[in-house]
Amino acid sequence: MRVIFFSIVFCALVNGDCTFRSNDSKDLQDKIKKWKIYNSTVTIRSKTSTYQLGICLAPNNSNINGAIIQTINEDSNVYVLGQINQTNLVGGDNWILLTYENGSPYSNQCYNKTRSASLMFVCGRNMVR
C-alpha cells in the first residue's frame, strides 16, 4: 500500500477520534479498518519544516484537535494544517482520500482562509480488500 503526503510514502488507518463530516463515508471508514493500521503517527522533516502527522489522533499528544502540525524550522512557528474534528473521506475501489480541514488561518495571503491537508491512501496488489 502507498500513501502520498507531500510525496512521502506513509500508510495508516483512519479511526479513533476523527469526526467525519458526512455519514456517507461509513463504507469508506469500514473499508480502511481492514488495512490493520490503527492510530498511527509519524514525523516528517524537510529542509524548511517539520510535520507531525496523526491519523485520527493528536500527533504530539497535545490538547488541540490538530491532526497535522507544521513547525517552520527557521523560526519555530507552529501551524495546524487540519483538525481531527473536521475530517472528510472520499474514495474509489483501491484508494481513499482523507482530508483534514479548518486548520490555522493564513495571515495576509490566501484571503486569510484556514489551512487544510489531504492524505491519499492507495491499496497495492498485496493489500486485502
Automatic annotation (TrEMBL):
<dbReference type="InterPro" id="IPR000296">
    <property type="entry name" value="Man-6-P_rcpt_cation_dep"/>
</dbReference>
<dbReference type="GO" id="GO:0019904">
    <property type="term" value="F:protein domain specific binding"/>
</dbReference>
<dbReference type="InterPro" id="IPR009011">
    <property type="entry name" value="Man6P_isomerase_rcpt-bd_dom_sf"/>
</dbReference>
<dbReference type="GO" id="GO:0005794">
    <property type="term" value="C:Golgi apparatus"/>
</dbReference>
<feature type="domain" description="MRH">
    <location>
        <begin position="16"/>
        <end position="129"/>
    </location>
</feature>
<dbReference type="InterPro" id="IPR028927">
    <property type="entry name" value="Man-6-P_rcpt"/>
</dbReference>
<dbReference type="Pfam" id="PF02157">
    <property type="entry name" value="Man-6-P_recep"/>
</dbReference>
<dbReference type="InterPro" id="IPR044865">
    <property type="entry name" value="MRH_dom"/>
</dbReference>
<protein>
    <recommendedName>
        <fullName>MRH domain-containing protein</fullName>
    </recommendedName>
</protein>
<keyword id="KW-1015">Disulfide bond</keyword>
<dbReference type="GO" id="GO:0005768">
    <property type="term" value="C:endosome"/>
</dbReference>
<keyword id="KW-0732">Signal</keyword>
<dbReference type="GO" id="GO:0006622">
    <property type="term" value="P:protein targeting to lysosome"/>
</dbReference>
<feature type="signal peptide">
    <location>
        <begin position="1"/>
        <end position="16"/>
    </location>
</feature>
